[in-house]
Amino acid sequence: MGDEQDLRGAADRSGFAGTEPTDSVGAEDTSLRGSAAWADAHLAAALAAWGIAHELMACDPALADTATFCEAYGIDPADSANTIVVAAKEDPPRYVACVALATTRLDVNRTVRTRLGARKASFATAEETRALTGMEIGGVTAVGLPEGLAVWVDAAVMTRGRIVLGGGSRRAKLVVEPAELLKVPGVVVVDGLARVVTAEGER
């Protein structure tokens, strides 16, 4: 993709290209869970533990939401992947993390709900997402999620050369080749997890 060069350039300009994590998952300070510092350290530990090749981009927290981020940093939305937590409406609720390109819309009411085996499913609230993952909306990423939480990746994500994901906190973004996500425990690639959004609507 002229897009891939754009991603590399944006990461290089950030000053974070090639940053290697040094923490281990077992050594992090969970008393700070939910803070940006905790999210940054937690992500670094997970990246190191699973040997995920990556780059990190610095991001203004005020610009971390997908559409704003892509416009501000010149990233093609087709290379931006959102990690979205979905809840099965049960007591207690069950959760799954879904990864889909910004140019698509997660098919919650059909594919996700059916795979969950739930009568009803909906997006988790910001509060639920924060409590479950320790990450803020705009920073949620597929790497370093709680043990046992399934991660479903829309098959369209795997067709991109490189993708930009949340960076744990709102002050960073994670740039990886999609195949690197397969190193994350619990990841499953799912056909039709999301639908393409066009000017005329979904298809």
Q: Could you characterize what this model shows?
A:
- With 203 residues, the chain is an alpha+beta fold.
- It has one domain (2-202): YbaK protein (Alpha-Beta Complex).
- It has five helices and eleven strands, in the order ααβαβββαβαββββββ.
- The strands form three sheets. It has a five-stranded mixed beta sheet with strand order 5-2-3-6-9. A three-stranded antiparallel beta sheet has the order 1-8-7. It has a three-stranded antiparallel beta sheet with strand order 4-10-11.
- Strand 2 (81-88) and strand 3 (94-101) form a beta hairpin.
- It starts with a helix and ends with a strand.
- Residues 1-28 have low confidence and may be disordered.
List keywords for this structure.
27% strand, alpha+beta, disordered N terminus, 5-stranded mixed sheet, YbaK protein, 203 residues
